[in-house]
Design brief:
Length: 254
Amino acid sequence: MKKLLNLLAVVAVLCLSACNGATFVSPSEQSVNFTIDGGEKGVMVSSDGSWSVGSSPDWVKTDVKDSILLIKTERNETGSPRQGDIVLKGKNVEATIHVAQASKCTHITVSSSKVEFDKDGGTETLTVDTDGLPQVEASDGFTASYDNGKLTVTAAANDGGAKRGEIKLTCEDQSTTIYASQKGNVCKKCGGTGKITCPTCRGKGLYDIDAGGGSAYCERCGGFDPPTSELWESGRKGTGRIKCPDCGGTGVGN
Ligand SMILES: [Zn+2]
Ligand SMILES: [Zn+2]
């Protein structure tokens, strides 16, 4: 009887971990990257019960604090990049977190030097060839991240005018820049140029003032008309273009 009680006790203890085993285990990151120096990163793990670290690469240390999985790596002295998977186990479910660590960065090459977005925005993915872990910086209006050989660039819907920016990837002394652009709302009156044909001179820069063939330089579009005809030579023809009144010269529409 005592033996049976012991057995029940063991079953009860096992039950605490196994019987409440999670039926879903969902890490906040599917992959975690470390530079050559290593360090510690935390990944939030959502679950409906208990889970544990089933396996992890031998160069990775893990620790669980509440629902956070701490992942630690030392400096990578192997001379080459390394990667592997951490497998989290619930009751009958598993989740994988890919871990990669750089050794040294000698090159970064991106599949395109530019990304273009429509006004509605969206996400573009470029392929990155590198042996390091590039840090990514994006200009305002764009967001970018690097993971596992892919650069993902996102632009939100653009309610303003056309945008331009840069995405810069840097690792150690290597760097490369991608130019990002996004279409915006264009002023219908000027087609986005910010200028329209001068209505006074109809774009000619001068206009007729009498039937005898006399003409005046158009001041509305930047010309200078001398006060007397003797000073005609000091005059200047107008450009024939004026600032668009609808957009105030910005080219941006509604
Ligand atoms: Zn004019
Ligand atoms: Zn305009």
